[in-house]
Amino acid sequence: MRLPVLVFDIETLTDLKSGAHLYGLDLPQDDLEQALAKLRRQESGMDFQRLALHEIVCISGLWIDENGVMKLFSFSREHYTETEILQKFLSIFDKRHPTLVSWNGSQFDLPVILFRAMYHGLSAPSLFDQGEIDTQKRYNNYQNRYHNRHVDLMDVMAMFNGRHFQKLDDVAHLLGYPGKRGISGYFVPEYVNTQQWLKLTSYCEGDVLNTWLIFLRWALLKGQISLQDHRLWIQASIHYLQGQAQQHEFLNVWRETSQRTEFTQADFSSTPD
User: Fold this and answer.
1) Which domains does the chain have, with CATH numbers?
2) How high is the pLDDT of residue 182?
3) From its phi and psi, is residue 104 left (phi > 0), alpha (psi between -120 and 50) or beta?
4) Residues of the chain below pLDDT 70
5) Is the dihedral of CA 97, 101, 107, 112 positive or negative?
């Protein structure tokens, strides 16, 4: 497993201003939101907006450095504008070149980040260069789905076949991890509108943590880490989360879900309460 690793996830809302501009709508905010949802259902049969009409309200990540030291973080609209959130996230790649890990990141998170960075006039060659600047990134770059600079777990676990895509929540549960714990992205607008920022960041960070745990299992499958290494990473993750008050609920649920599969039953066996 190549360190450093950055596991990330984003949360978004519909960009009402861009939607109104795109469709030529002049409506109050509540009516505009309903109109855009109706138009989207007519276009695609679903409420989920096209990628270009998402605005980012939170980016969360788990950084694991070369020494295995972990840091969980979130940039949200509580403290930053969307431009500032993007600048903070993109600046990571100016300094370091981590293994990027996501769930559906190549289909959703990175394209949305690309659109929003362009919308705000930002430059991010360290993330989006495909060899035009650094020739070493001609093939192994963050956009190439068949290399491991960016590991989109949903994609690689489906063997790059869209018919086999699975939900993060389902895979996490099947492997003995907490999953989304009864929460979904449908709550994000409510969290933002009512300024429940802690709930927003906890939800986004929960997705990051589930993705990290699945990535460890993927690395074990691929032979990138040994079984002993996997156990050590699990213990290190538990130890780290015990010091993160915001993630105690995640940890408690994990303790319960770990008992549902034979492989994960020992996750907490050598960890003090």
Assistant:
1) 5-260 (3.30.420.10)
2) 77
3) left
4) 270-273
5) negative
